[in-house]
Amino acid sequence: MKNKLNILLAFAFMFSISNVFAQGCDGDAEVGLDSTSQQKIKVFGFLQPQYTYNFDGGDNENTGEFKRARIGVRGEALKNFSYYFMLEAGPFIGGTKDAYLMDAFITYKADNWARISLGTFKQPFSLEVATPCHSLLTVERSIVADQLVAPQRDFGLFVYGGNKFNKLNYSFAIMNGRGLLEKDNNTKKDIIGRVNYKLTNYLSIGGSFRYGYPIDNDNDTDRSTFGAEILFEKDKFLVQGEYIYDEGGFNLASGGGCGSEPALLGDKRDGAYIMGAYKVNEKFQPVLKYEFFDPSLDHQDDGSYQERFTLGFNYFFSERVRLQVNYLANIETVTEVDNDILVAQMQVKF
């Protein structure tokens, strides 16, 4: 099935990218000055409490937790100079009981083609990673995005923009490569970029790349990552897919985005997902997602290869209140294990 999906994504890539270039978890909404030049400051955030049931028969077979609990402020301090600051207050993702910094950057807007940000933000790699956390169609990001687009946040310089017709968008960053709140400890930097183009009113394609040196105190071992993405949106129907290939050195400590456990990787690894959703009405949206992740292309039969189906729905009580219910069916290729997961998540934005 993996080879068939590779062919499907390659074929779709030739014919069909989202214009989402979100540096932070709330996207890039404009905040400007009023006529009296007083600051407009927006306080924003969201809560995502959830219940998880694991079909493994273990001691932690069911639990309640916060997926995310975030609060931030953004505004414009001077014409063309804006700021964005967000904290994660949930105790589960970072393994700490203390709130900690998620995003903090200053942006200068020259024009539509060039906006420059400096600070801590998401890597400009992958459509799914760029999608704001509260806009994800499934509770979990794909395995490949969490494992290979990691660290998902870092400190660096970010340049992005696009034309006024919103056809072509780009983002480019030079980042430390060490991850969130970690001090850089080598002299090399990561170079990361993403470009997408809207072919029609319904069909977009794009690609991402990353080249860097992820090993602590190592200026010689490099890493290269490439991604391709597709987005089709027409009326109530959506199809989205990505393929990511990665090779070279890695830092296990910086793996595992969104709180997932980092996987032990081989010299070459890849993965992909394809997802479809249909909004039956303003309230109800069923979602189906298939994905695979191969952490080591050189060891096909060691049991590390993963496949997963996600079946679920989104129910919108309003624009700011949403319920997500997902059943995650994990597929083993060597030995069958009872490890499916049922998760229900409520979300409130403010």
* Global outline: globular
Q: Structural class, from secondary structure content?
A: mainly beta
Mean pLDDT: 86
List the helices and strands in order: HEEEEEHHEEEEEEEEEEE
CATH topology: Porin
Helix tally? 3
Low-confidence stretches: 4-20, 29-37
| CATH architecture assignment | Beta Barrel
Radius of gyration: 20 Å
CATH class: Mainly Beta
CATH superfamily: Porin
Percent of residues in helices? under 10%
Walk me through what this model shows.
- The chain has 350 residues and is mainly beta.
- It has one domain (2-349): Porin (Beta Barrel), CATH 2.40.160.
- 7% of the residues lie in helices and 50% in strands.
- Residues 4-20 and 29-37 have low confidence and may be disordered.
Observed structural traits:
16-stranded antiparallel barrel, Porin, globular, mainly beta, 350 residues
